[in-house]
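Fold these two proteins, one after the other.
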Amino acid sequence: MESAPGLVLVNVQLPDGRRTDITIRNGRVVHAGAGVAAGDKKIDCTSLFVLPAAVDIHVHMRGGSQSAKEDWETGSRSALAGGVTVVVDQPNTIPPLTSPELFLNRVRDAQAHSSCSFAVNSGITPGTPIEAMWMAGAMAFGEIFFAPSSYGEAVDKAVFSRALNRIQALGGLATVHAEGITPGEDTGLAAHDALRSGVQEKEAVIAVRECNTCGCRLHFCHMSTAGSIDAAQGSVEVTPHHLFLSREMTGDADCRFKVNPPVRTERERKSLWERWDRIDVIASDHAPHTAAEKALPFPDAPSGVPGVGTLVPLLMAKVLDKQISLADVIRKTSTAPAALIGIPPAGFSPGDRADFALYPRSSSTVEPEFLHSRCGWTPFEGLPAIFPRTVILGGEIAFCDGEFFDTHPAWYPGKGYLPSP
């Protein structure tokens, strides 16, 4: 029996410099090497960067009462247009995802409206039925807040330690928002940095380590200082806003840069790049708010920035300038996050998930009108970036030259998932 026509990426340059053709059928890579069968659709990749599409393990897709900020429809389109085909949604929604019913409602909402594949995490509170959330399909637990943030309530050390014991017994992953807060007037970016200082972040990382007497798998979200990275015992995530932005780049009252953990000094931003090899995952912490909310006086404005659509494009501009390697971008945005959460990898080998993003070898700049997020603004406006020309999800073209196409995105439940009878 003849196989169905497939999609062939012709003359792909692999990260090691070799050229090959990648043949895709039924959502998987089936062949790496020359040979195009009759009827196969071809995409000439001679002048393109070809990457396994990104897995952004830290997004807040909002929705519900927060739909003016973002929802699954707009957030997932922003992801695709930025070369991201899988996102992991965080549970600090309104209401938070701390029961199987609320969790499965969230999954159904994403299944109905998301253009990209997704997973969903479980929240942690004193009363969260952790085992039931695991069986409902939670990918991981958290981000667990060690300090309060916008729409995130902190848990105390006793609750945190008990939760780690239960998560470890299940073989699960705990993702942690490690911060400390000093009371004071939050009047601007410098004050915000001081009240949620890098020293306190490092102390919180150490406190998390001390609570983890059971050896639970830990993932540290959005580390913002070199000291915190050095102290972390677990996988380390850093965001583009901490790598590319510093508070010296704008006015002190600019709420567009207000985020938790804070955007730090230029010196600290550069120190993060010095830890590049220690960083396991680059994730966006996509947390959009409306422009009107960000126009409020600094103490009243919520923390958080959009970023899923700019996660990879910002890094690709650095690849073009030969400041970082293509292999590192693939590892930190695709291979490592997929392995961390336990989903099939996208890649160039037979059997790999056929999710790819094809980027031109020339840069542009970040402009908010091309990002598709409902919030309509970005703190990265004007920075160099390379946006994908074509994005492939499950072997199907999902985005090309500014146009979206229907595909078949997947829900990736965690490994404890037990489907209802």
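Now the second one:
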Amino acid sequence: MFSRPVRRLTQISRQITPLARPILAPSTPLSNSRFCIQELATMAPLPQTMKAARVNKQGAIEEIEVVEIPVPTPKPGEVVIKAEWAGVNFIDTYFRGGVYPRETPFTLGQEVSGTIVALPSSADLLNSNDYKVRGFKEGLKVAALASGGFAEYVAVPWKDVQVLPEGVDTRQGAVSLLQGLTALTFVKEAYPVKKGEWILIHAAAGGVGLLLVQLASQFGANVIGTTSSQLKAEIAKKAGAKHIINYSESSVPDEVLKLTEGRGVEAIFDGVGASTWEGNFTSIRRKGTIASFGNASGVVPPFSVLKLGPKNIKVCRPVVNNYITEPAEFHGYATELFDLIKNGKLEVAVHSEYPFTTEGMRQTHTDITGRGISGKLIVKIA
């Protein structure tokens, strides 16, 4: 009864070289035949070279070039992803410009989404419970935190890869992963936001800012956001901010004290850096927390710990990677993040989409360092 399908599969097998897996034997159930052919397709060898956005030496935007380099050889614990999208983050400018020193040349990028084309080769890893719970298979759509994400193929440690659930596509995965994990871990661990508290979020219409506003508002906080324009103010309000201060027109500390009847806010999330730093000490209330996580206006200057004493202020420098170091931490937060997105409780706004060219990559750095961005920048890799 299987003679015709088997002959057809045999004809197909002769056209596929080299064979990654043996063709179906005559005793193989017909229901498995389609799966076998799909497996053969996913096992196609990787190309020798790929396009990648490289920085030959740290410095100006002109140091970015999209060039051909060898496809990475994965380590035993790495997943290989064929990239579709890659998100742009402010930290990319720090690495390119030299704020964070790095050995050159290197490939830019921190997050990527696409299709799994190769799985880890470590037998011990493949049998571990932490690995099995991820459900990795070739052909699945995933998002990953990936150093060197601006490339056509990326080899990523398995623990930093998350399978995308039904209802979240690769474009959403790339725009949301790093900034989403940043915002989610910050409002839960850097400062656990609680109902009724006053929270100040600088650059409230930026990529991380908009996510912080949404999450803090959902937790029941009274969110004060700072922006530079009326347009950005409207965007931040739509995300859930109750009050907006235009820092180009008003003194942020003065307005914060007015809104809070002189008490100040319980917590400040500050991704701006140097230009907002001193004002934070006026805006914060007694026993408050300042979470300083960015350098958009420059690096925060050194300060004496004695500055914290008059109000018993806490200052932290949260880094998202330290909240998701363990496999279970990353998987737990990433699962929660994509559930929020899938269920419509968290929206990641895309400001602009760019081509994967030298000109396109350079433009991302020009735009993200300007003041006209509200939301996320993303590059279409394939």
